User: What shape does this take?
Amino acid sequence: MSAPRAVAPVLDHIRVGSAPDSWGVWFPDDEQQVPWQRFLDEVAEAAYEWIELGPYGYLPTDPAVLRDELAPRELKVSAGTIFTSMHHGPATWDKTWAHVSEVATLTQAMGAKHLVVIPSFWRDDKTAEEIEPRELTVEQWQHLTTGMERLGKTVQDEFGLEIVVHPHADTHIDTEEHVGRFLDATDSRLVNLCLDTGHYAYCGGDSVKLIRTYGERIGYLHLKQVDPDILAEVVAKGTPFGPAVKQGVMCEPPLGVPALPPVLEAAQALNVDLFAIVEQDMYPCPPDQPFPIAQRTRRLLSSCGA
Assistant: This one.
């Protein structure tokens, strides 16, 4: 008698999507990137229902135009993305808010509820020059946490959106220590986390442990994996994030770490609805590379129950 087949758990709290990032899109306009129409066609054909806006200006910024493009493809928007340097203190607020309000206006108009907040880099992506020290001072940490809380409250009041801060390689919110310090110093009513499984692994963190420890602060997921062999070389050589991506440090699931089924099951156990947006950093990449990867990744997630 054959052993019973394993049945994938039902991940009914996980809403799977993808993003322009998985098509090699990092900038609003870049000749190395696929046109936005092709991204929308392919992400829909790969059977994703949700997308992020990506860098502001890549997709149409007129809500009526964007709705007309998404509707026939049966796509919906889960979040917009913003970039901040809150550790620089109140002097950066006006410039930050000008950027945030543009993205938030479109995000709100598209019916999404989240803004993914990415902190600024401490070193140049291309030259590897250290623009700032890797570690923040006590005063800068205070600016960072109070600034993010102010941003969270203002975004809630003005647009009805939630901010989810994205720990990211080569930023000051990256490692387990830094992520924990940030969460412990911020108010969960104003600021929560976008856990990017790839970036967190890149910086030495354990996503399942983070979900189990700070479950109430996990407001959003990015699903991503790193190639451990390439990562070891990147760490040994001190390679900046941009060149590391060109080396293929972020790889197609299930070829890297962390394993996604335990992450998804830990997220499901939180018993709250969560977006899980696939992101595979591939900038730059050949235009025909993303689509088959997107199809395979969607099938993989379906096999996991998502």
